[in-house]
Amino acid sequence: MNVIEIHSLTKNYGKSRGITDISFHVEEGEIFGFIGPNGAGKSTTIRTLLSLIHPTSGSATIFGKDCIEFAPEIAKEVGYLPSEVFYYDNMKVMDLLKYSASFYKKDCSKRIKELAQVLNLDVTKKIDDLSLGNKKKVGIIQGLLHEPKLIILDEPTSGLDPLMQQKFFELLQAENEKGATILFSSHILSEVQRLCDRVAIIKEGKIVQVEKISTLKENNHKKFKIESKGDLDPAYFELEGVSNLETKEDHVSFLFRGDINTVMNKIADIEITNLWIEEPDLEEIFMHYYEKEA
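Given the sequence above, the corresponding structure tokens read:
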């Protein structure tokens, strides 16, 4: 079953760009990455999905229900963390979390305590006295306290230090193992690479690609670096599928896409002293998709 289905979703903002013809789905139980640079349309898509703004055209469903028609019903089972969190400054953290919990008609006090402990958050403080990172933690707890079936996170790690990011990722994986589906929006590729099963790449309000993380990596370039006993002729490695070829006396490096045996046969005919074959990271893969589109 698909927890989220988005069909040709479009939101126009007059002259400024919104989103155009966005379509993808998120399967039950998966962690789905939604990635693109700032301003690409990630937040607009999410806000439209949550019925915080209405689309110009197209439609979306969550749990098989229309997002606009059944918005209040859907909200009970969704946890949402916006990219920027704003609160009543004079409220104490615990009062705010209790107030948030009151919307869900179930006792969330045990869960609030657990989450505050994991994230090392002092719930007796006033919101005004919190750092940016601690305000983000309040947002995380607010999004998870009712144990939602669907968690939607928009740039969730901004403001968190690396140690807290690690705890946060562990928390998400634990929620996912309990059965929660997660939509994770980010412009940081390493986060998506680490957490997600599949990813939608968005550029300038349009989806460029929807792909499994594993396929993105498999179908892309391998990085070769070769060290030889004698000088290497760069022309020797000018094969179909080779790019970014760089030579320096006894060193040669390049990216290769295609049948790896072609390169291995070439390497077998020269005397080498060392060989490195690496996966390119998602950063390089991502740039490849953006350049291809351009």
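The chain has a mean pLDDT of 90. Try to locate this feature in the token string yourself.
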